[in-house]
Amino acid sequence: MSFDDRLPFLSALERKVLWLASWTIHHANHLRQGDDSLKVGGHQASSASLAAIMTALYFAVLKPEDRVAVKPHASPIFHAIQYLLGKQTREKLENFRGYGGAQSYPSRTKDSDDVDFSTGSVGLGVAITSFASMVQDYVHAHGWANGRPKGRMIALVGDAELDEGNIYEALLEGWKFGLKNTWWIIDYNRQSLDAVVREDLHTRFEQLFTAMGWDLVVLKYGKLQQAAFAEPGGERLKQWIDAAPNQLYSALIFQGGAAWRKRLLDDLGDQGDVSRLIERRNDAQLSALMCNLGGHDIASILEAFEAIDHDRPVCFLCYTVKGFGLPLAGHKDNHAGLMNEAQMTGLREAMNIREGAEWELFEGLDIPQDKLEAFLAAVPFAQQSNRRLTAPLIDLPEALAIPQQKTVSTQTAFGNILNDIGREQSDLARHIVTTSPDVTVSTNLGAWVNRRGIFGRDAMPDLFREQHIASAQRWEFSAAGQHFELGIAEMNLFLLLAAMGLSHSLFGARLIPIGTLYDPFIARGLDALNYACYQDARFILVATPSGVALAPEGGAHQSIGSPLIGMAQPGLTSYEPAYADELSLILRWAFEHIQQEGEEGGSVYLRLSTRALDQLQRTINPELAREIIAGGYWLSPPGPSTRVVLAYQGTVSAEAITAAGLMAEDRQGVGVLAITSADRLYSEWRRGQHHRHDGRLAHPAHVEKLLAPVPRDAVIVTIIDGHPATLSWLGGVAGHRVHSLGVDHFGQTGTIADLYRHFGFDAESIMRVVEASAPGRPIRFRAG
Ligand SMILES: Cc1ncc(C[n+]2csc(CCOP(=O)(O)OP(=O)(O)O)c2C)c(N)n1
Ligand SMILES: [Mg+2]
Known about the structure:
Elements: H1 3-31, H2 44-48, H3 51-61, E1 67-69, H4 75-84, H5 90-94, H6 124-141, E2 153-158, H7 165-177, E3 182-188, H8 201-211, E4 215-219, H9 223-230, H10 234-243, H11 246-255, H12 257-268, H13 273-279, H14 283-291, H15 298-306, E5 314-319, H16 341-350, H17 369-377, E6 407-408, H18 410-422, H19 427-431, E7 432-437, H20 446-452, E8 454-455, H21 463-466, E9 477-478, E10 483-486, H22 490-500, H23 503-507, E11 512-517, H24 526-534, E12 540-543, H25 562-568, E13 572-575, H26 580-593, E14 603-607, E15 613-614, H27 622-630, E16 632-636, E17 644-649, H28 653-663, E18 671-675, H29 678-693, H30 702-707, E19 715-720, H31 725-728, H32 731-734, E20 737-741, H33 752-759, H34 763-773
Parallel strand pairs: 1-2, 2-3, 3-5, 4-5, 7-10, 7-11, 8-9, 11-12, 12-14, 13-14, 17-18, 17-19, 19-20
Antiparallel strand pairs: 6-15, 16-18
Helix pairs in contact: 1-3, 1-4, 1-15, 1-16, 3-15, 6-7, 6-22, 9-10, 12-13, 12-14, 18-20, 22-24, 25-29, 28-34
């Protein structure tokens, strides 16, 4: 279909989309029976702002391989478009924001209408598109595209989203990478949630994007305005528009034609041609002209999008009006604004929609239904019925190697295991992709990277190596590389992991993504981590070093609350092994877990340490292996005479074992419970409780079985190099007294021994706690 032939269809659909979105919101707020808590604004004006742009995109420009992140509050527009395309139900729209209904913010996991990227926390949906584009390049460079063309990764960006710092971190990373196939379409309505934004922000945006190597396309004036500028006096009107402050322009849009006339004639009256240009138009025409910004002009939008014939990243700066086409348009307080009954009736009548026919697809449009249906059936975007792709599972070896050093830290063991995998040309080795925000070497990924290389579309040799300068690290880029080098921005790490972890679904190629960072800096990217999990992206996070075991680095580098993050974050299972053999098993399990469909699977967080531990000389039988994965096992089992249990997680096993050994003479049957995952133990126990509360049968959880033989009057002393609350819940399982040791204030510099003593979980402190809480004879052997 020619450009011109499509315009009437797109204009009709734009009206329809705006109507359906407005009606959906109105229905949720005014008509649905139910709870007042569902009645929240924030969608109506914000949605209207993008109606034309999204209509042009979805009904004309997008191809099935394109992927889109929709500005959170434009969700009703997105759902309306999907409704028109037959991918959204009326029932879900009627239940917008309600339980099980279409979601407030587009959600990959909760919505059923083909959301590519979830949005909600502003800025993140924008930035993930650039990381998705990098992952797309990776998939193609590794020959896994299966003939599928590259798509454009598109973000529909609220202008206030550009206040989020993660946007700039992503832009810089994109520039370093040589970003391609990414469009950011800025809805420049000059309004945020609270108010009208600062003047002249567009100049900053223009400079920023240009500086980062993006093409910039500005859509400021619609066709009506362009035609008016060509009339005598038009140039003067254009100058007035360009000079008008944001607040004034918004206020006039809200007030409408008569206000426009008054203000324009106050400023431009009796100036010859321009005055006559204004006077030639009635109020409605004048208002239409002044509101005819580029972002609402379908022809200008289509022209701009379709003019792009290259794969460079493009920023479209689209001038829009928040609330365009609605009585809320332009008002600075319109973010939470809702139209009242009378206003909705007015809109319905203006749209030629009969009462009772509000959900009808073709009601009120002046194009015959069969023609519209034919147009919709031919929409390029809708030609592929299932845009959610799948990919076969990656073959895994029966077991991973276990590092054989007598004394080793979990961090070193991790590096060794990965190095071992990297030595082979296995399915697993090929599909692992690693990344790290400038801590590749210091988190022990170096050996893996030496073997597998760094990914870059353009090859770049390691000059040090070429010059024969001795270096342990080979830093070579090529299209075959399997490591993404990132700068120090943890937000970027999690957004890249999110994109990698969705690769099977977005690009039909399954990756096994592993990201490493220092444990305390999870907090730096926490919202992006949550965002990745919310979308059900699958990856392995290796956080190391951790705890106050990072002793000489001091309080700024030591992590305290991260085990609680691991427990509290849905979609992420956390482990903190003490020994290399445990880590080997857990990593093997993680490779499988991240590939499992649905709620059976998820992402995995490994909290590792630089503290070297003497390894236990043992062979792990299948039962012990199962327990390690289930979250814990008895290192020294309890007996009927047990009055003390030391339950530890992580490398404080050394303190627990030392204390148990020293106490053995004076306390009978001290139990030592090795916990590899408080998270696993806790969540299984909670799930079982839920089942029982619902009157369903639940097998005893692993932790219930573990604690069953512990006499009721025994005390459990829990020990972790992290927040003590991680393990203090153990008392709730079978009613034991618990004394929890750990870290609950900022650390110091010093040796590990200094700090463990300082925080009261060295062996001596543990024994003092036992003496105080489990009466018995004095403990004679002391730690030192
Ligand atoms: C991280 C985060 N902080 C705050 C919010 C609350 N919030 C929702 S939309 C919004 C700003 C909306 O402005 P803009 O992006 O320009 O979109 P518009 O409403 O103009 O369409 C804010 C602050 C949020 N969703 N996410
Ligand atoms: Mg805005």
